[in-house]
Amino acid sequence: MTQVSYEEACARVLELPAHTKKNPFEETKAFYEWLDRPGGKCRIFHIAGTNGKGSVCAYLDSILTGAGFRVGVFTSPHLADLRERLVCDKKWIGKETFAKLYGELEERLAAYGRNFYPTFFETLFFLFMLWMEEEQPEFTVLETGMGGLADVTNVVEKPLVCVITKIGLDHCQYLGNTVEEIAAQKAGIFQPGVPAVYLDAGEGIRSVFVKRAGEVGAPLFPVSKTAVKFSKKAKNKIDFLMESAYYKYIEACLHTEALYQAQNAALAVRALEAAGLSDRLTAEQIERGLASMCWPGRMEEVLPSVFVDGAHNPDGIAAFLESVAEDGCPGRRFLLFGASADKSIQEMFHLLKSSKLFFGICGTVISGSRGMTEADFEKLRHWDAAAVFQDSARALGALMRQAEPGDRIYAVGSLYLVGEIERFAKRRREEQAVCKKAQGGLL
Fold this sequence. Notes:
The protein contains 15 helices and 17 strands. Helix 1 (6-15) packs across helix 4 (95-112), helix 4 (95-112) packs across helix 5 and helix 11 packs parallel to helix 12. The chain starts with 5 loop residues before the first helix and ends with a helix. The chain folds into two domains: 6-292, UDP-N-acetylmuramoyl-L-alanine:D-glutamate ligase (3-Layer(aba) Sandwich), CATH 3.40.1190; 300-440, Protein-Tyrosine Phosphatase, Chain A. It is 42% helix and 18% strand. It is an alpha/beta fold. The protein has helices at residues 6-15, 25-34, 53-66, 95-112, 120-135, 172-175, 179-186, 203-216, 261-274, 283-292, 314-325, 345-354, 374-379, 392-402, 415-442; strands at 43-48, 71-74, 86-88, 91-92, 139-143, 161-164, 196-200, 220-224, 228-234, 237-244, 248-254, 300-303, 306-309, 333-337, 360-364, 388-389, 408-412. It has an eight-stranded mixed beta sheet, with helices on both faces. The protein has a six-stranded mixed beta sheet with strand order 12-13-17-14-15-16, with helices on one face.
């Protein structure tokens, strides 16, 4: 077997975007089948959608793990460490295991004998499934990439249940220019006889799901907005009440200020019901799992009065603003905006600016080739922010010096920005802990 260190394996994986391009789905599927479909016998929850996929995965993981089941979870993107994407029993894949499986995958590719090389996302998926073949958890939760129909995760057969989260306009150059076209791509994960849970967000999208489900013979389980009721309870908490097909009602305290998490929690509960697990889970286990879920980067307070949110498309920004408007902030709000240049930045910024929720807005360049540049900010209509910073740490530091007690700072626009702010916040907390310890020693 090819022997590589973790550092070498990680470096090779991170280099893949520059050297690979998306493969035809049938070629990807053929390679997975040649690998003998690793991890394919797991009981799989398959999650697609535009916004909320990762959160639904996290709610499912929290409920099932809290109830004593072993659960593997595949999500993207990562915020700080590549291994965040590959999780089992609440633990990232070990460095030695990652390196071992990468070496095995390279060896299998060399033996495949065809002109096929997986992309970055495909490589991580294959590594995860090879790991699941070893771990054999009771359940596996798979988050698709940007699509559904031609997504590498769609190589799995007969998942336990399929879930479609909120649909919005994103990745339009690949998926379509209307929400109906995008919904059709996402619904490509529907399979014969497999329950399909979806967020019922209107007639147009509903008709797409009904049509696709009818074509493949998938029973549908919609989650309507009226099925979920919630109200703000306190800082960082909202009350959640859902009408349940099996339990009648599920009540929980969600530890978040993101109002949109209520619909993601409801999708997770309905998915468990549709999967036929109600007789193995009590209402109390579900409620505890919902309450204990933690998913970084979604209206998360990373430092006192500093919040990050990974909204990176117009629908995500609209949901973010809905939560900001209900935050009860007694002072001013400041905004740090940084996004990938290939997103709908004009529309996102227009929503942020026209909301009139923020006293001041500044921009930041995000590391990486896709991030907005200073020139991109200058092209934004009505861009009159105080400054555009070359890195997010300096930008956040400037806002923190400007903020007063009672004010709030929000960072939004990209999960890559969230990752940078998370790392800054971690360093700040560590520095404060060292200072506090030193001061304690002087007393």
